Amino acid sequence: MAEYILYHTTDGVGTLTLNRPKVLNAINYDLLRELDSLLDEIAADDSLRVLLLTGSGKAFAAGADIAQQAVMDPAEAEDWGKFGSGIFRKLELLPIPTIAVVNGYALGGGCEMAMACDLILAGEKAKFGQPETGLGITPGFSGTQRLLRRVGVSKAKELIYTGRMIDAQEAIQLGLADHVYPDDQLQEEALAMAKKIAGNAPAAVRYAKCAINEGAQTDIDAAIAIENKWFAKCFATEDQKEGMQAFLEKRKAEFHNR
Ligand code: DAK
Questions:
Q1: How far is CA 149 from the centre of its chain?
Q2: What is the predicted pLDDT for the residue at 145?
Q3: Rounded to whole angstroms, what are the CA distances from 43 to 27, 249, 258?
Q4: Strands (DSSP E) found in the chain
Q5: Cα 89 to ligand 1 centre (Å)
Q6: Which residues does a 6 A CB cutoff place in the pocket of ligand 1?
Q7: pLDDT grade, residue 194 (50/70/90)?
């Protein structure tokens, strides 16, 4: 039974809610262990189409737990960084689309967790940042690497060197967040987007994620070959036949994840 993360599913949409509101959902070892085992459960659940990840209270997550890290020696910090980065990579590679629903602070490890999701939707009061240098450390859950991939090298350097917090509008301008919504509409808009995705052919969505993730790691010619491989795989699915037949018959497609 998870203590620090709530999890529920509705109509093919899973929602994970980080739930340590008294410490702004600070990420400790126990929370990461829970996330790890929930991600295994989610990856094995064939009924799921999309995962939403959000926080309870006024934060998405205000970072890794500073009290826990304060007493670490270099070897313990290395283990901690590997543990967290490994779980965030698992999140990034989850077969279904993932959406970070950033309802408040997403700082340090919280921003790193959001960046491991496919999409980031923000409420108007959301604040993003990598404030670690002000604590005497570098980002340690792959933030130096994912931030530069989202906003470019020089902006990532500026944000990490200064540790400055940015609001949702600036996060949109920089390409860190994808959409901003009024705070009281954020969860509803996220669910609407999840349902829109869930209405498309599940394998096609999963294959598109694979094509983009794999292609992002390589040169354009290899990336185009990767796309071609995933495109061809779609034609081995019943849902491809159904999607195209439905178009030709001018009716709505009914996908069965086959
Ligand atoms: N850890 C632990 N507790 C935290 C926390 C955090 N990251 N953030 C907030 N809290 C706690 C506060 O201590 C406070 O607890 P009490 O005093 O009530 O017991 C409670 O949450 C409410 O916070 P505040 O009273 O401060 O709330 P405010 O609204 O006044 O301020 C704030 C909100 C988000 C501006 C402020 O709480 C804040 O600045 N928080 C810290 C943000 C931060 O610096 N985040 C980065 C954390 S470091 C690595 C691996 C991982 C990482 C790095 C390296 N390696 C292995 C190399 C990752 C590091 C981080 O994420």
A1: 14
A2: 97
A3: 22, 34, 17
A4: 5-10, 13-18, 50-55, 59-61, 98-102, 105-107, 119-123, 127-129, 166-167, 179-181
A5: 23
A6: 23-24, 26, 62-67, 77, 80-81, 84, 105, 107-109, 131-132, 135, 137, 139-141
A7: very high
Under a CB-based contact definition with an 8 Å cutoff, are residues 186 and 217 in contact? no
Q: Tell me the pLDDT band of 224, cut-offs 50, 70 and 90.
A: very high
pLDDT of residue 121: 98
Q: How many CB atoms lie within 10 A of CB 8?
A: 9
What torsion, rounded to 10 degrees, do the Cα atoms 223, 121, 104, 53 define?
Answer: -70
User: Does the pLDDT value for residue 2 go beyond 90?
Assistant: no
196 pLDDT more than 90: yes
Domains and CATH numbers, the chain: 5-198 (3.90.226.10), 202-248 (1.10.12.10)
Ligand 1 atom closest to Cα of 78? Answer: 56
* This prediction's pTM: 0.97
**CA 251 to ligand 1 center in whole angstroms:** 52
